[in-house]
Amino acid sequence: METRSVASTMALAVEIQLPESAPARNQSALASLIARAAAGDAAAFEQIMIHTQHRVMAMSWRMLGNEADARDASQEVFLRVYKYLKRYDANKDFFAWLYRITVNVCRDMMKKQRPRDHVFISDEEALNVPASQETAEELLIDAQQRALVDQAIATLPYKERASIVLRDIEGFSTEAVAQILQSSATTVRAQISSARKKIRNHCRRVLTATGGAK
Question: Is residue 169 part of a domain?
């Protein structure tokens, strides 16, 4: 597959915001796609992109804080996935490998980017998951709380931001986060503890300033 094909498919995948589908959840189906893609099957690689792009986009958005950079990061992630897929160890967690690439791309972009306004997203917006049946008031409160937490995450240093997003939002174990970040579990635990404290303090300061704290 040429670079142009990867880029155009990625742009389409991000645009349509497909939810996670069967191949992404079914490990054997995903393994088959990966093997075919590594052997040069362009259609299989496009399927991998389509079925995993929402995870990459959500992670990138949370790390970088705005849609434009997240889209650029997502495209670069899949260009690297295509380039290095033959090096992927099929005995290892594909999503851990994918997130490692995503985190590295975001780190590189954060070093180069100019300060931008952060546009925060809820879990539903990031992952395109339909909200449960709640009242409008409950939805508004939930959205406000998530936005406040996203704002707090955006204030964290890169390593703490990556650790807390992977652990508390993406749901990886501490050991898996350590592998993704190529760090130790002890270091990751310390980063997560520090991140959680900073998030609580940030939310408390904002709520106190706005009269929302009780």
Answer: yes
Handedness of CA 126, 128, 134, 139 (dihedral sign): positive
**pTM score:** 0.72
Residue 208: pLDDT over 60: yes
* Residue 194 DSSP SS3: helix
| Position 141 pLDDT exceeds 80 | no
Q: Which of 62, 78, 75, 79 is nearest to 11 (CA)?
A: 75
What band does 148 get if pLDDT is binned at 50, 70 and 90?
confident
Residue 182 belongs to domain spanning: 131-214
Reported confidence tier of residue 102, pLDDT bands at 50, 70, 90: very high
Give the whole-angstrom CA distance, residue 198 versus residue 204: 10
Residue 23 pLDDT exceeds 80: no
Residue 147 maps to a domain: yes
Q: How far is 8 from 50, CA to CA, in rounded Å?
A: 12
Residues 6+ positions from 44 with CB-CB distance below 8 Å = 33, 34, 36, 37
Quick check: is 126 in a domain? no
Among the candidates 118, 146, 179, a domain finishes at 118
